[in-house]
Design a protein that fits this description.
This protein has five helices and 16 strands. The chain has 451 residues and is α+β, with helices and mostly antiparallel strands. It starts with a helix and ends with a strand.
Length: 451
């Protein structure tokens, strides 16, 4: 009964007495029975709370670990993006040659020499954005004791209207192969014709250019305007002093249609120099003082993939500058007309070529009264080259070249060749009449690669 009252709660008043003890008992029992459960529940709650607290701490630790991992991955991705945005290329030319005598064509004489045309270069392009690039080209030449020289270092940006603006150290776009002047692998010959490509001593300038190309169906017309300043340090000039090229202003345009291409370029600048000397001697020259200089270049080429025909004509002029005749450097440098025509044909990986080139100074009358300057700067010559290019693979080519240069003019003329000039100056200064070379034959081979 008590268990029934206690359980179901009925007849509680009438049977209170008889039901007190059992109720208390049941109460104590209930209490005794309830306490462990509550304790268990409390323990479970504490345990759950502790577990929850532990879980929260563990989650926090894991979140922190994940954040650190994400940070590392972001850094790695950023580094990957930086690496992917950088393109590095290089080129290398190992050349060996010798000449039939000591006239000094392209730096060669009777001794086998590896130095004059051996060089290595690296070019890097960093993609800042899809339309902005940072480009640099570093070249080391054996003849300059492998001293690295920055040929290019510019920032390029192309606007939405396809106008490209470049600023920094840029190549002077004088010739059809100016952009590949250092990369012999990209040229059809072992070397560009000296009579044209060696006339202007400066190859780069600091400034800005604007390039715009108009596309047609099968043609395009490119315009390039530029301005800036340039300089040649004394160790790279023949004058024993720095030469500054101020107020460089130039323009170049190339029209291409299928296999044909024609090009015109013009540049003018002002020369200034320190205490100059006759190249190869200590004989003083009149310094360049605001001497105006101009260059005109015209070129045309046909290249259908097999047959290549290319020709260029150039005209360069340097006036004396200076406020009067006494300070004028008239005749200190040559006015030169020069040209070449070259034909090559690709038979698979073999490309033979032939080239005729000429140069002639047009201001010899300015040096009639100065025999030293006559020896140094009066020059004319005709040059014939025959060569062969063998493409070993897609990025390596072996070249062979035989060049004959002659028609130097009157007896005692140097042909503008370096060793002939030095030898003839020695003859004059020593009051001797030793005969200098009136022609020369140069044999050269080179291994060229890009990577």
């Amino acid at each position: 009964m008590s268990k029934q009252i206690a359980i179901d709660g009925s007849n509680t008043i009438s049977k209170t007495v008889s039901t007190v003890r059992p109720i208390r008992l049941l109460t104590r029992q209930s209490t005794r029975l309830t306490t462990p459960a509550a304790t268990l529940s409390l323990a479970v709650c504490i345990s759950a709370a502790l577990s929850s607290s532990y879980a929260s701490a563990e989650q926090l630790r894991r979140v922190q670990l994940l954040e650190e991992q994400v940070s590392v991955l972001e850094e790695q991705q950023a580094e990957t993006n930086r690496v992917n945005n950088v393109t590095v290329n290089g080129f290398f030319t190992l050349s060996a040659g010798m000449a039939s005598n000591d006239a000094g064509y392209a730096g060669y004489d009777k001794t086998l020499d590896y130095v004059p045309e051996t060089k290595v270069g690296l070019q890097a392009s960093f993609e800042v954005t899809e339309s902005t690039f940072l480009v640099a080209q570093l070249v080391s030449r054996a003849e300059q004791h492998w001293r690295p020289e920055m040929e290019w270092a510019f920032l390029s940006h192309t606007f939405d209207n396809d106008l490209t603006v470049r600023a920094g150290r840029l190549r002077v776009p004088l010739y059809m192969y100016s952009d590949y002047l250092e990369v012999n692998f990209a040229q059809p010959w072992l070397r560009p014709p000296e009579e044209v490509y060696a006339v202007v001593p400066v190859s780069s300038y600091e400034g800005i250019d604007f390039v715009y190309t108009i596309p047609f169906d099968e043609a395009e017309w490119q315009f390039q305007a530029y301005t800036g300043v340039g300089s040649d340090p004394d160790e790279e000039t023949d004058f024993g002093t720095d030469v500054e090229y101020d107020d460089v202003i130039g323009f170049a345009s190339t029209f291409s249609y299928n296999s044909f291409s024609v090009r015109a370029s013009y540049v003018m600048t002002t020369l200034n120099s320190g205490d100059a000397t006759v190249p190869g001697t200590a004989i003083p020259l009149v310094n360049f003082t605001d001497a105006d200089t101009s260059f005109i270049g015209l070129g045309a080429s046909y290249d259908d993939g097999d047959l290549l025909v290319v020709a260029e004509w150039t005209k360069s002029q340097v006036d004396g500058g200076g406020p009067d005749a006494a300070s004028s450097a008239e005749g200190n440098w040559q006015d030169v007309d020069s040209a070449y025509v070259s034909v090559a044909y690709r038979f698979g990986n073999i490309t033979p070529y032939m080239t005729y080139a000429m140069m002639d100074t047009t201001d010899d009358d300015e040096r009639v009264l100065n025999p030293v300057n006559q020896i140094v700067f009066d020059a004319q010559r005709s040059t014939y080259s025959a060569g062969l290019r063998y493409d070993i693979n897609a990025n390596m080519a072996l070249k062979f070249d035989i060049t004959y240069s002659g028609n130097f003019g009157s007896s005692g003329a140097t042909g503008g060749l370096s060793d002939n000039i030095v030898n003839q100056l020695g003859n004059v200064l020593a009051n001797q009449s030793n005969v200098i070379e009136d022609d020369t034959m140069v044999y050269t081979t080179s291994l060229n690669m890009v990577f």
